[in-house]
Design goal:
The protein has 521 residues and is an alpha+beta fold. The protein is built from 17 helices and 19 strands. It folds into two domains: 1-12 and 47-407, DD-peptidase/beta-lactamase superfamily (Beta-lactamase); 413-513, Nuclear Transport Factor 2, Chain: A.
């Protein structure tokens, strides 16, 4: 099967999967943002050689690895290196199955959101409604709120960070989990107060999925996500992977590679038990990316696009950090957690969605830029392999092409019409048009007479002005543009009001004067 076919399968799935959801009323009043450069994909492809160098440089430090670049839902570039198993010396390929550890958490979040969308639960339900073993928890303060499903999804339940401990709990049984919860769970914070990463919390979410759906967690995930997406290589059971496709995990110790014993699937599989291949992981990331931008059209996926966007937005903030980038720059990062996904904003990209996975023997990362339509995925067979700096180098290479840009907001018909009429008023005042476009506050904030006099003064200063094609749209109801004039330019900005029809509530006009020839500048 070709990469183009894989992308087509995802696109077909987006429009024609088995489950359906109600469609909200909409209209052309909110046109979705779009990419405007027809050569964008070709320009981005110019970065692939530099990206290959970055991934091969880091990947060469481990026994085997695979990586891919996703643009607009298609796996447009992929790379592999090393072997899936040192004993057999079999090369890694697109069908090699790696353990992806905590990247599993987003699958769990999707399962919970599907149950929410089906009316089976609310995110603000107390967790002990579905998990009676939690009813006897001793909370840290008398005024602590009960743990909710939302707290668990966003790592805000107050449990202590447990990465070193959590890795070794995958094989635990249902009976063990019940007994552990009845015995109590210590709190590092009261619920709802702070972000703290909890594998335990996602283990509990797996139990909630099972209780509410009436099916084993593994079966429910397969039914609502894996089967609709055609993810036939993805599983929670490592014994289900054909031996000729399974990547073996290693750790570097005593100057040699040592096999990490594979961890079996148990009650904590919902926090980190998934295994998948590059081909399947591409389908999954493309599915999450397909939620952007919000738009009209069929919404027939196993989970609503709005729910997928919900999990990809920050729900619980983490403290901001200042770090040194791979290129040596100082970077301020605003970050936090959505539902099963990490969310952050950098100085250069305002929306980054990601999650890594680390277990003994494996290190993986998926990361995408929803407004740019670009995603990166990588998997390696080395304990806790950290792909972050390599992804940063890849992102920098994409940025250097000049085509790594977000979709551009489009004006609503009302904004486009208001721009025309405001520009007309700047060229020649018309009392009727002024009354027609104005929201009820516009001429109370600055009287009509003062606005007209100010425009007369501007025309005297800069001469006749003309409306060009340039229009910088901030959103469907706000934008700014420049008018070229005989002796300079006018910068105009308007914002429409929340009325039907939308009218102008804010309007500013300023000048840039062109000095006469021969004068000092």
């Amino acid at each position: 099967m070709t990469r183009n076919t894989l992308g087509l399968l995802v696109l077909l799935w987006v429009g024609a999967a088995s489950s359906s959801h109600p469609v909200a009323q909409s209209s052309a009043a909110w046109p979705p943002p779009r990419f405007t450069d027809p050569a964008r994909a070709d320009k981005l492809a110019a970065a692939f050689p530099a990206i290959d160098v970055a991934f091969r440089d880091y990947g060469s430090r481990m026994p085997g690895y695979a990586y891919g670049i996703i643009i607009d839902g298609r796996l447009v570039h992929e790379g592999f290196g090393g072997v899936r198993d040192l004993a057999s010396n079999t090369p890694v390929d697109a069908d090699t199955v790696f353990r992806i550890a905590s990247m599993t958490k987003s699958f769990t979040a999707i399962a919970v959101l599907r149950l929410r969308d089906d009316g089976k639960l609310s995110l603000d339900d107390p967790a002990d409604r579905y998990i009676p073993e939690l009813a006897s928890l001793t909370y840290p303060t008398a005024d602590s709120p009960k743990i909710t499903i939302r707290h668990l999804l966003s790592h805000a339940e107050g449990f202590p960070e447990d990465n070193p401990w959590g890795d070794q709990q995958l094989a635990r049984t249902e009976a063990w989990l019940s007994q552990a919860m009845r015995a109590g769970i210590p709190f590092s914070n009261p619920p709802g107060l702070a972000y703290e990463y909890s594998n335990y919390g996602f283990g509990i979410l797996g139990r909630i999925v099972q209780r509410v759906s009436g099916r084993p967690y593994r079966e429910y995930i397969s039914t609502i996500i894996l089967q609709p997406l055609g993810m036939t290589a993805t599983t929670l059971d490592p014994t289900a992977v054909p031996p000729g496709r399974l990547a073996v995990g290693y750790r570097r110790e005593d100057n040699q590679w040592k096999v990490e014993p594979p961890l079996p699937d148990g009650v904590f599989g919902s926090m980190g038990g998934m295994l998948t291949s590059l081909r399947d992981l591409h389908r999954y990331v493309a599915f999450l990316m397909s939620a952007w931008p919000p738009r009209d059209g069929p919404d027939n996926g196993p989970v609503k696009r709005a729910s997928l966007r919900e999990m990809q937005q920050m729900s619980r903030a983490a403290p901001a950090t200042v770090t040194r980038s791979a290129s040596g720059e100082t970077v301020l990062t605003n970050a936090g957690y959505g539902f099963g996904l990490r969310i952050r904003q950098s100085c250069s990209v305002r929306h980054i969605v990601a999650h890594g996975g680390g277990l003994p023997g494996f290190g993986t990362l998926m990361q995408w830029y929803p407004e740019h339509g670009v995603g990166l995925i990588a998997m390696g067979t080395m304990t806790y392999a950290g792909w972050g700096p390599t992804f940063e180098l890849a992102t920098n290479a994409l940025g250097a092409t000049g085509a790594f840009l977000p979709r551009e907001p489009q004006p609503s018909p009302a904004l486009a019409e208001a721009r025309q009429k405001v520009s007309g008023l700047i060229q020649r005042w018309d009392e009727g048009v002024a009354d027609q476009i104005a929201a009820d506050n516009l001429f109370l904030d600055i009287s009509k007479d003062r606005r007209r006099a100010a425009l007369d003064a501007l025309r005297t200063e800069v001469g006749a002005c003309r409306l060009g094609d340039q229009f910088d749209v901030e959103n469907a109801l706000r934008g700014r543009w420049t008018m070229a004039c005989d002796r300079g330019q006018l910068q105009v900005a308007i914002t429409l009001a929340p009325t039907m029809p939308p009218k102008v509530q804010a309007w500013t006009t300023s000048t840039t004067i062109t000095p006469p020839a021969g004068t000092c500048r």
